[in-house]
Amino acid sequence: MTEYAIEISGLRKTYAPTRRTSGKEALKGIDLNIRTGKVFGLLGPNGAGKSTLINILAGLVVKSAGKVSIWGFDQDVNPRQSRASIGVVPQELNLDAFLTPRESVEVQAGLYGIPKSARRTDEILARVGLADKADAYARSLSGGMRRRLLLAKAMVHSPPILVLDEPTAGVDIELRRMLWDYIRELNEQGTTIILTTHYLEEAEEMCDEIAIIDRGLVRAQDSTQNLLATMDSKTLVITPESPVSQLPALPSAVRSEIRPDGTIALTYSRARLRAQEILDVLCGSGIVLRDLTSEEPDLENVFISLTSRHDDPET
Ligand code: ADP
Ligand code: MG
Q: Domain 232-296: which CATH class?
């Protein structure tokens, strides 16, 4: 087994201009190593370059420069082995409308050269909850069923790496739960999972490690836990007994705000201040606290601080 399921260095992609679109540098030099056995999240806003990266891994988009190794196989040197090591569930729900799920999975198995005797079509369809739809035309399947069929197709060759591009975009909560459970189970059985998402909650819940990608570059990569730990801030939210229009002078490390609903939000670094010092100043100035709650930092803070646009005129 290789230490890294995926190794990417200096990866660039510039889409050529067409009659309808101008050229676009979607990836500007990506370096990324993804450890075997993880659930790895590629997190970034729309247009960041996530699908471009995934589609290069899938062999659907041709890179402009750089090196990509999948399961230790250089994509340019061993294209067949590298392709056999990965299964990709694309973002777009494109399926042949006139094939049934059973036929779709069979065709896919054929493309991967899997002999009839080694195919697990029924088992795979059952696993994604499509056993009773095995012989229905794809055009009659709901969006959620189509996504599950794409997942089944990605699994026909039992790849050690499974990549899912926005697996839960636009699916209902029940299906999202089902997909999450299934992805976790595959991971526990040893499959390395890579998923892209622009839902912070999904990344926080699912991923061991995260790379935040924005405007074609990796802006941060770390364990989910470490990324969250870099945010040592905490926010106290105070409901005053009577409306407050002006706040007393607080320690300079505190960011204060009176919110539209009249609550006072005080954000501070836990490493530098104690809540007591802030509350002392407030109470000393005559503000009476009716209620007090606190807000913990979440991935959203990390995300906003890493992808905020003020440092770069290009959007
Ligand atoms: P994401 O998946 O993170 O939303 P994409 O990889 O789809 O981002 O897109 C990255 C950038 O590349 C965007 O600006 C997008 O408009 C552009 N892009 C994507 N696909 C094409 C294409 N086939 N031709 C030209 N530009 C493209
Ligand atoms: Mg995308």
A: alpha beta
What lies within 8 Å, CB to CB, of 142 at 6+ separation is none
Ligand 2 (single-atom ion) residues, CB below 5 Å: 50-51, 91
Find the ligand nearest to 166 CA. 2
Q: Which of 11, 12, 13, 15 for a ligand 1 pocket mutation test, highest count of atoms within 8 Å of Cβ?
A: 15
The answer to whether the beta carbons of residues 249 and 273 sit under 8 Å apart is no
Concatenating the DSSP letter of every residue in 72-105 gives TEETTT-HHHHHHTEEEE-SS----TTS-HHHHH
CB 148 within 8 A of CB 141: no
Contact 81, 71 (CB under 8 A): yes
Q: pLDDT digits over 207-246, tens only?
A: 999 999 999 999 989 998 888 776 677 889 999 999 999 9
Distance between Cα 53 and ligand 1 center (Å): 10
Number of helices and strands in the chain (H, E): 10, 14
Contacts of 35 (CB under 8 A, 6+ apart): 3, 4, 5, 192, 209
| Per-residue model confidence as pLDDT tens digits over 265-293 | 998 877 788 899 999 999 999 999 999 99
CB 12 within 8 A of CB 29: yes
The answer to whether residues 169 and 24 touch, using CB atoms and an 8 Å cutoff, is no
